[in-house]
């Protein structure tokens, strides 16, 4: 371009530098850099690729030029630091040069950096220090808390710390109650959190088995004018059924509907799952029937959960009725639904019926997992139908679909292979599969051949492919 006397204007330079920075080609960006207004872009790019020493060099150069860095540059630097002494150094350098609004933005970036570095407790202390509420002992221990003047935090400041407390910090270590106290203190300071941190606090209390305290917090926020959303109600419903208090779930559902909230399909699935797991499958069936009549949302998960519950209760015929109803309602089974029904029918001793659904599943190009084959083979063995049990074993061998040696199902397969090898109807065919190397050695290590082990070498956890290595 220079040979043709074509020069780039400032806009072109900006576009090129932005492009190089975006592609992390800082070497090319530095070659073009010749404008102080582009320091922001360049420092941001260096921070992104963790070239912090170079970023700080350009920051110092900017100050030497007598230009006050804007808050965007400062926050990019601050959020990139993992070392606390770097944060302290930067804070000390700029505190006198920027106004209070910019200082709040800067401290918010420090809070973000602390939360991202899992220094949640320190973020909490810094927030208190910003309000002028820090102890002498904390200040002595943590230089970062030496705030020269009180800076009133804004909504973002509280949100950053609350999010850290509830997602990755206090609640994760069983300190949900402390997080709730912080929420209360933030309200006293004039900050009104939205429903999201309260929902997270309720969830944390439930996970620490503080269900009554979670309910109390829920009622408190309702009385303060908050309107919990569907997510908050779902958290509460889930917690109640896990605490085996499913009788209260219907009241919670009724309250949702009175308040004009439309329960989601997740709400219905939680209720059905709760009733089934608390041995009240009839209530779950009744609820599903009401949903169908009232055209409420249900999905394949709702039906799968209930069919699983019916099979566990020894009611396979009801599960099959529900399967057919699911199809009539236009809710088509997925891979998980097929496998749940097949496994449930196997547990109920109905392997012949299972074959129908196994073939349907394969026709839809859904591949059963090892768990399905093992359950089906075991069910045929329990019914003393060894020829069909062998057919399942042969299909497993054809697909190489055997459980991992460390999987408990491997022991089930090994017992099955032993039984089939000892039965006159299947013995020769099983031994042929073994001779062809189509059954893993771990699954046939108990089989004897004329008084000797069929394989005379250690076989625990060993497959044919391992032997040849």
TrEMBL record:
NCBIfam families the UniProt entry points to: PPR
Gene3D superfamilies linked: Tetratricopeptide repeat domain
PROSITE patterns, A to Z: PPR (PS51375)
Sequence intervals crossing the membrane: none
Superkingdom: Eukaryota
Molecular functions (GO terms): mRNA binding
Alphabetic keyword roster: Repeat
Protein name: Pentatricopeptide repeat-containing protein
Organism: Quercus lobata (Valley oak)
Family according to the record: Belongs to the PPR family. P subfamily.
InterPro entries with a match to the protein in the record: PPR_rpt (IPR002885), TPR-like_helical_dom_sf (IPR011990)
Intervals holding PPR repeats: 35-69, 194-228, 229-263, 299-333, 334-368
């Amino acid at each position: 371009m220079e040979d043709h006397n074509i020069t780039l204007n400032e806009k072109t330079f900006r576009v090129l530098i932005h492009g190089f920075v975006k592609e992390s080609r800082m070497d090319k960006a530095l070659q073009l850099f010749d404008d102080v207004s582009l320091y922001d872009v360049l420092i941001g790019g260096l921070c992104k690729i963790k070239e912090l020493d170079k970023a700080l060099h350009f920051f110092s150069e900017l100050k030497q030029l007598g230009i006050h860095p804007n808050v965007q540059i400062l926050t990019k630097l601050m959020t990139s630091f993992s070392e606390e002494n770097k944060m302290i150094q930067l804070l000390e350098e700029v505190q006198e040069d920027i106004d209070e609004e910019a200082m709040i933005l800067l401290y918010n970036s420090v809070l973000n950096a602390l939360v991202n570095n899992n220094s949640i407790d320190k973020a909490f202390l810094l927030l208190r220090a910003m309000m002028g509420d820090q102890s002498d002992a904390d200040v002595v221990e943590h230089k970062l808390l030496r705030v020269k003047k009180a800076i009133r935090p804004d909504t973002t400041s509280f949100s950053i710390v609350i999010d850290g407390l509830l997602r990755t910090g206090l609640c994760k270590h069983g300190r949900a109650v402390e997080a709730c106290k912080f929420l209360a203190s933030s309200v006293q300071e004039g900050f009104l959190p939205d429903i999201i941190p309260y929902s997270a606090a309720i969830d944390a209390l439930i996970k620490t088995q503080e269900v009554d305290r979670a309910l109390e917090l829920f009622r408190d926020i309702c009385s303060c004018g908050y309107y919990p959303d569907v997510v908050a109600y779902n958290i509460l419903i889930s917690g109640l059924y896990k605490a085996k208090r499913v009788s209260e779930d219907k009241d919670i559902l009724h309250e949702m509907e009175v308040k004009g909230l439309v329960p989601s399909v997740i709400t219905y699935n939680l209720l059905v799952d709760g009733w089934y797991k608390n041995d009240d499958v009839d209530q779950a069936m009744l609820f599903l029937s009401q949903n169908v009549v009232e055209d409420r949302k249900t999905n394949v998960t709702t039906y799968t959960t209930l069919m699983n519950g019916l099979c566990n209760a020894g009611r396979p015929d009801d599960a099959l009725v529900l399967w057919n109803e699911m199809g009539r309602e236009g809710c088509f089974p997925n891979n998980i639904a097929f496998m749940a029904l097949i496994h449930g029918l196997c547990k109920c001793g109905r392997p012949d019926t299972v074959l129908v659904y196994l073939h349907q599943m394969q026709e839809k190009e859904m591949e059963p997992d090892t768990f399905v084959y093992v359950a089906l083979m075991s069910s045929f063995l329990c019914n003393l139908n060894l020829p069909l049990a062998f057919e399942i074993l042969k299909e497993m061998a054809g697909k190489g679909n055997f459980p991992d040696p460390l999987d408990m199902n491997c022991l089930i397969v090994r017992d099955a292979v032993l039984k089939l090898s000892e039965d006159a109807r299947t013995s020769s065919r099983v031994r042929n599969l073994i001779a062809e190397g189509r059954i893993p050695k771990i699954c046939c290590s108990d089989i004897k051949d004329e008084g000797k082990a069929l394989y005379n070498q250690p076989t625990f956890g060993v497959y044919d492919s391992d032997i040849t290595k």
